Amino acid sequence: MELICPAGTPAAFHEAVDAGADAVYCGFRDETNARNFPGLNFSREELKEAIAYAKTKGCETFVALNTFMRAGAEEIWYRGAADAIACGADALILADFGLMAHVAEKYPDQRLHVSVQASASNPDAINFLVDTFNAKRVVLPRTLTIADIARIGKSIRCEMEVFVFGGLCVMAEGRCSLSSYATGKSPNMNGVCSPASHVHYRKHGRDLVSELGEFTINRFPEGEAAGYPTLCKGRFDIADAKGYAFEDPVSLDVMGELEALKAAGVSALKIEGRQRGKAYVAEVVKVMKAAVNSPPERRGALLARLHSMSEGQKTTSGAYEKRWR
Amino acid sequence: MQLIPPLLTRPLNAVPLVVIERICRLMFRRIGTAHPGLFERLGEHRTKRFAFLPTDVPLSFVVEPASETISVSRKTSDVTADAVTEAPLFMLLALMEGRCDADALFFSRDLSVTGDMEAMLAMRNALDASNIDLSKDLARLAGPFAPMAGRVIGEIRNRALRGEAASWN
Ligand code: SF4
């Protein structure tokens, strides 16, 4: 199975390639990509150089243009697609049907992948994208069980890629409005969930308090591992209970289910983390590559090395194994 | 986590601030020369003031990318900055070189950030993208002794990072 690895900067891109990525995914430094964080991402020139480097090592590059086009500003996304293709991208990862239609029509030979942001989560939706836009691969949302994936795999006409490690988006992606509700900005339209511009950390005694806009997301007592200030992983007072409403601060790790994913027909394993540093990318790609090539009984020990780098210093297999709370 | 023992930091109180600052400015300029595009990724945040407070050293450092300056003060005085990062010194240096992941250090509570998060995120990403290598960049300051200085700095860094890796795993 292919290992698809994240890169937010050219330095992280090189680390991913050198650590054995089969493909690296990345995006431009603008609102066309769902990781539009300050100081992150690639200029046209940087992307061109990165792709050229990857090609010398036999590694592919997927360019994510996976936000939804703003009405009247479609040109930004069209230019992004044209430039990514000119730079030599092996595949474009797209979420917006209009952009898919544009790419399918103007660049019929360009390989097109359906982003997780498109939230295509049943055979009818996926086959529609295959038949209409010639999509070659779908990145499945992290809301499906492995049994769901196996059922989908039997009736679709393209490859399946699934997230196996890294940050956990627990809602139907591309449809989550929690960040919009709190800040007016979302990953879907602006490329940022819980944007840094609305995040505040303050110390309260020995506690660390995280706030997003006008909402307190969490209060971590001294010594407790911290998490990102996302609403889906906030700790709230709900009626008589205090606790996590949707999910704990935790990262995804479904590598323990590799054989089941293979049997379900998954052809590519995706690592989340374009916003993480190059040290993280280097370590995670190295360990994941070793894990993919190891017998199942050795994987646990290898992956344990990554727990402390994960959100909340914990990992979960998420919806792949469990039903919604 | 590798902390600098107080025995080693206490003498810093006796060294005049102006001397410490001059050395820091020299090092800062050296890094700037070696990485001319260092702050390009900061964009609109280039005009902000970034404070770095090592938790194990009695000094604070404030970087102003717009004027490419660094100022040093004693911890006893307040720092005025748009964004503040606090962590042990070796971690701050490792972050500067991109040898540690800032999010992982935040999760483990070894690093804390306050103030303008956008600005600090941009700074973090700019540093991570820059390929700074202190053992190479600073060794040149030692003139003919550069190779030896590079080896010494590299060895100190590797020892500190080994301590860091041990705490990660
Ligand atoms: S709030 Fe949570 S589920 Fe929603 S987009 Fe952000 S990370 Fe994903």
From TrEMBL, chain A:
InterPro entries the UniProt entry points to: Peptidase_U32, RNA/ubiquinone_mod_enzymes, UbiU
GO BP field: proteolysis
GO molecular function list: peptidase activity
Xref: Pfam families: Peptidase_U32
Listed cofactors: [4Fe-4S] cluster
Residues noted as binding [4Fe-4S] cluster in the record, renumbered to the chain: 169, 176, 193, 232
Span list, region Disordered: 306-325
Protease as UniProt keyword: yes
Keywords associated with the record: 4Fe-4S, Hydrolase, Iron, Iron-sulfur, Metal-binding, Protease, Ubiquinone biosynthesis
Protein's pathway: Cofactor biosynthesis; ubiquinone biosynthesis
Top-level taxon of origin: Bacteria
Family assignment from sequence similarity: Belongs to the peptidase U32 family. UbiU subfamily.
Cited HAMAP family: UbiU (MF_02232)
Function: Required for O(2)-independent ubiquinone (coenzyme Q) biosynthesis. Together with UbiV, is essential for the C6-hydroxylation reaction in the oxygen-independent ubiquinone biosynthesis pathway.
Oligomer status and interactors: Forms a heterodimer with UbiV.
Protein name, UniProt field: Ubiquinone biosynthesis protein UbiU
Gene: ubiU
UniProtKB/TrEMBL annotation, chain B:
Pfam families: SCP2
Domain of life: Bacteria
Domain SCP2 residues, every copy: 40-128
Matching Gene3D superfamilies: SCP2 sterol-binding domain
Name used for this protein in its record: Lipid carrier protein YhbT
Organism annotation: Neorhizobium huautlense
